[in-house]
TrEMBL record:
Protein family (similarity comment): Belongs to the AAA ATPase family. In the N-terminal section; belongs to the AAA ATPase family.
InterPro entries, A to Z: AAA+_ATPase (IPR003593), AAA_lid_3 (IPR041569), ATPase_AAA_core (IPR003959), ATPase_AAA_CS (IPR003960), FtsH (IPR005936), P-loop_NTPase (IPR027417), Peptidase_M41 (IPR000642), Peptidase_M41-like (IPR037219)
Keyword Transmembrane helix attributed: yes
AAA+ ATPase domain: residues covered: 42-181
Pfam families, alphabetized: AAA, AAA_lid_3, Peptidase_M41
Protein name (database record): ATP-dependent zinc metalloprotease FTSH, chloroplastic
Length: 472
């Protein structure tokens, strides 16, 4: 009844706000008198919302380990059966058993399986599911009520849940468990590296900076991949090389066969150096982390960047700089080899920069079209059915204005990228020469060579010997 899950709040990192909410519930269960003295009543339900892999189920396991009260754990799909009335009967049985053992905790994982919006007529809803949901609504806050039973539920699709389920009195609190920031990622990495042997030069803060957008599950997988690589290479400790290779593998795919063809290799080298030079010389772009000619996934070569700050808020200048950097490869091909020799290598870059430019116009209001959102939320919803049913209310004139603005942004940035390539041809030739020889250039090596030919902005340089040298 009091499960030893082996997980406590010490094992949960990077979600401090959610942890604090749950710590409060644990205190409520342990010392109810302290809260009752000021007229507080115990919350009936807590809904955990967030993307997959952020630690929602882990938090529930931690609260089970910490609370010291009976804990019932099940999945939303366990209520749904093909037989009529089974789901509602299981909900009744669950809450009857929970009331007998109150105070207690009930954890329902993936509650969207049973709590989907009623009467929507889309998404595969049926009467059996609705009866199960009705019974759940009644048990959580109906005529009889349920004192001492706290329901914790988790979902990554809150937009499809029934509104009656989300109201105060049923789920009193909605706790968002989002993707961790830099500090959160560092704490998560520290938790997952406790049982691993790391070389002394491995910096968890640098790994955290290199992994924006990674969830807790991604970071756990990263450290495990690094440990597997270290074992495969016969090492007794994980070094920075294993961690770098693991990040590259997770983000870009497996390492491919190295290129031997002279012409293709030279072209890819100019393409990647074009990205790195245009990004470095454009204000607002993140600093280069490394440039490599080693193929990964579909890419023949890659240029990596380290985000300078947490990328949750991005300025217009930063978005503009990303488009310039993204077009640097195509600009280098066109200027150095001529327009007839441009290749299909820029296909992925063009998709990315077109998406950024369109978002600047239609979502962020960063163009002459005006500061207003031009896309219906249903159109950009992840739900396929909602997208099919959404009516596009945009006029032909507005659609034309949007296309014109997107094209203007991309044309302007392409001219800037070509200007950077023309003005720094000597530096690009030197960088390509070194890159062809070494196949991989670190960010510091790249900036040291580039600074011999032009002034590198100081915000693109980390606190290393290169920065002191350039400042001097």
């Amino acid at each position: 009844m009091e499960p030893n899950t082996g997980v406590t709040f010490d094992d949960v990192a990077g979600v401090d706000e959610a942890k604090q909410d749950f710590q409060e519930i644990v205190d409520f269960l342990r010392t109810p008198g302290k809260f009752a003295a000021v007229g507080a009543r115990i919350p009936k339900g807590v809904l955990l919302v967030g993307p997959p892999g952020t630690g929602k189920t882990l938090l529930a396991r931690a609260i089970a380990g910490e609370a010291g009260v009976p804990f019932f754990s099940l999945s939303g799909s366990e209520f749904i059966e093909m037989f009529v009335g089974v789901g509602a009967s299981r909900v009744r049985d669950l809450f009857n058993k929970a009331k007998e053992n109150s105070p207690c905790l009930v954890f329902i994982d993936e509650i969207d399986a049973v709590g989907r919006q009623r009467g929507a007529g889309i998404g595969g809803g049926n009467d059996e599911r609705e009866q199960t949901l009705n019974q759940l609504l009644t048990e959580m806050d109906g005529f009889t009520g349920n004192s001492g039973v706290i329901v914790i539920a988790a979902t990554n699709r809150p937009e499809i849940l029934d509104q009656a389920l989300l109201r105060p009195g049923r789920f009193d609190r909605q706790v968002t468990v989002g993707l961790p920031d830099v500090r959160g990622r560092e704490e998560i990495l520290r938790v997952h590296s406790n049982n691993k042997k790391l070389e002394t030069d491995v910096s968890l803060s640098v790994i955290a900076m290199r992994t924006p957008g990674f969830s807790g599950a991604d970071l756990a997988n990263l450290m495990n991949e690094a440990a597997i690589l270290a074992g495969r290479r016969g090492k007794d400790k994980i070094t920075s090389k294993e961690i770098d290779d693991s990040i590259d593998r997770i983000v870009a795919g497996m390492e491919g066969t190295k290129m031997t063809d002279g012409k293709n290799k030279i072209l890819v080298a100019y393409h990647e150096v074009g990205h790195a030079v245009c990004a470095t010389l454009t204000p607002g772009h993140d600093p280069v982390q490394k440039v490599t000619l080693i193929p990964r996934g579909q890419s023949r070569g890659l240029t990596w960047f380290i985000p300078g700050e947490d990328p949750s808020l991005v300025s217009k200048q930063q978005l503009f700089a990303r488009i310039v950097g993204g077009l640097g490869g195509r600009a280098a091909e066109e200027i150095i080899f001529g327009e007839p020799e441009i290749t299909t290598g820029a296909a992925g870059d063009l998709q990315q920069i077109t998406q950024i430019a369109r978002q600047m116009v239609t979502m962020f209001g960063m163009s002459e079209v005006g500061p207003w959102a031009l896309i219906d939320p249903a159109v950009q919803s992840s739900d396929v059915v909602l997208r099919m049913l959404a009516r596009n209310s945009m006029s032909e004139k507005l659609a034309e204005d949007i296309d014109t603005s997107v094209r203007r942004i991309i044309d302007n940035t392409f001219e800037i990228a070509k200007m950077h390539v023309r003005n720094n041809r000597e530096a690009i030739d030197k960088l390509v020469e070194v890159l062809l020889e070494k196949e991989t250039l670190t960010g510091d090596e790249f900036r040291a060579i580039l600074s011999e030919f032009t002034i590198v902005p100081l915000d693109k340089i980390k606190k290393t010997g290169v920065r002191e040298m350039i400042e001097a």
